[in-house]
Amino acid sequence: MFRREKKSVSPDSSPGNEQQQQYATNYYDPDIARPAAGDYDEDLHVQCPPHTTQRKMVAKIDLRVVPVLSILYLLAFLDRTNIANASIFGLREDLRIVGTTQYNTALTIFFVPYIIFEIPSNILLKKLKPHVWLSACTFAFGLVTVCQGLVQNYSGLLATRFFLGVAETAQRRYSFFFGSTSLAGAFGGLLASAIGKMNGMRGYLGWRWIFILEGVLTCVVAILFYFIIPDFPEDAKWLSDEERTYIQNRLRKDQGRSAAERSIGIRDVINVFKDYKIFVGGFMYFGLIVPAYSYAFFAPSIIRSYGYTPIGTQLHSVPPWAASFTFAMIVAYFSDKLKHRFAFAMAPICLAIAGFGILITVHDDRHLQYGALFLVTMGVYSAMPVIVCWFSMNLGGHHRRAVGTAWQIGFGNIGGIIATYSFLPQDRPNFYRSGYSICIGFICLSAASCILYAGSVLWQNRMRAKAPTDLGLTEFEKTEKGDMNPDYRYLL
């Protein structure tokens, strides 16, 4: 989706034009992909090829790029969380994981290199082409996953989890494909239920086959995608010469408008963090990461406590994930159609709180408890993409968007470390009340942050509407200010 700053429009006092006026001064143009054929972009001075439209061009690119990146993220999340499925098939007993927090430590160690190696990963990505770097990293974490199925002790498990975090650093470059998270959860449970029946084959227990087969699948896909992942518009063979020229010109003009041609310096980073909304946006995401990873890592253990067999546990883990994917798509559709984010973030959050509320109070009705898991997944995994999209769209200019989104995702992922210790083995006799309480607390933190953020953008929009807009700023100065430009209007 392209973003650009539109020219200011004259004020209109009629209520019906209030929302239209707000979007006219925002960098995000929700109708950019739906112009008429042969449309000439007067703002960027780029002519679309006569045989197509911008909408068709966007759809063509999406069909080539989005499925590939979504599959890669699905495999990354699958290899990251399949340890939860493996634990149901005897991983803890076979590796003699007897300590109260040893299993949780194995989950935590993944996040250490996942955070530390982000900067080296970015440097290498600039030196290597995307298809080389992404395919290599995908193959690497597939290979490490296979090795995870061959370890013979707890130390080996810790080592493979650490290197899995190193290999998956590149996945943060496209971590916005949240829909793949739900699909990975559903696919992982279904696959684990089938692989679990291989228990004892070739002398390997079922948990080892989960790692081995899913790792091999990742390696095979990585090899195939080496030849499929597009690098840059000029390298895309599925675009005509006219289309490649148009996309290159469009990106060049659009990046120039957002000041992307200038490198980000330390002063840019400092200026971004002078805006308190940046910190609020981080806590909006951080509050949901804790319950999201808590469910991903411990859902099989929670479902197993309802009395299901290991195979039954894996099968029962699939429907909540599938429901969350469907609900997330519905929420995303109506949020985009109505051009609104706040309500579509708060409604799923309330749904998740209701689900955890049931889980923390009801302990004698496994059907009701199982139903509550649907509310949890549908709520948490639907609100996350809305919050990230909302925050990113309100960051005007390349520098503020790059720094702001990196901060939100990077700070939010710290919640993954907290999540790994939210459900401890000794809490199972107490129905995991502590874990559910932690999740409710962090979801409420996210809700409070969303309310504060919504109030902030509304207040700033009203202040800017009352203030004079003609301050004599040049186009360059407006571009440098990004969303701090007095002409800019935030989205609610």
Helix and strand content put the structural class at: mainly alpha
Strand content: under 5%
Would you tell me the overall average pLDDT?
A: 80
Number of strands: 2
* Overall shape: globular
Cα Rg: 24 Å
Largest sheet descriptor? 2 strands, antiparallel
Order of the strands making up the biggest sheet = 1-2
Residue ranges: pLDDT <50 for 5 or more in a row? 1-38, 172-176
What does this molecule look like?
- It is built from 21 helices and two strands.
- The chain is an all-alpha fold.
- The chain has a two-stranded antiparallel sheet with strand order 1-2.
- β1 (40-41) and β2 (46-47) form a beta hairpin.
- α2 packs parallel to α7 (130-148), α7 (130-148) runs antiparallel to α8 and α7 runs antiparallel to α10.
- The protein starts with 17 loop residues before the first helix and ends in an 11-residue tail after the last helix.
- Mean pLDDT is 80; it is low at 1-38 and 172-176.
Keywords:
492 residues; 1% strand
Summarize this structure briefly:
With 492 residues, this protein is mainly α. It has helices spanning 18-24, 54-88, 91-94, 102-108, 111-116, 118-127, 130-148, 154-167, 179-195, 206-226, 241-257, 266-272, 276-304, 310-316, 318-337, 342-361, 366-393, 398-412, 415-420, 433-466, 475-481; strands spanning 40-41, 46-47. A two-stranded antiparallel sheet has the order 1-2.
Layout of strands and helices, then pairs:
Elements: H1 18-24, E1 40-41, E2 46-47, H2 54-88, H3 91-94, H4 102-108, H5 111-116, H6 118-127, H7 130-148, H8 154-167, H9 179-195, H10 206-226, H11 241-257, H12 266-272, H13 276-304, H14 310-316, H15 318-337, H16 342-361, H17 366-393, H18 398-412, H19 415-420, H20 433-466, H21 475-481
Antiparallel strand pairs: 1-2
Helix pairs in contact: 2-7, 2-9, 2-10, 2-13, 4-8, 7-8, 7-10, 9-14, 9-15, 13-14, 13-17, 13-18, 13-20, 15-17, 16-17, 16-20, 17-18
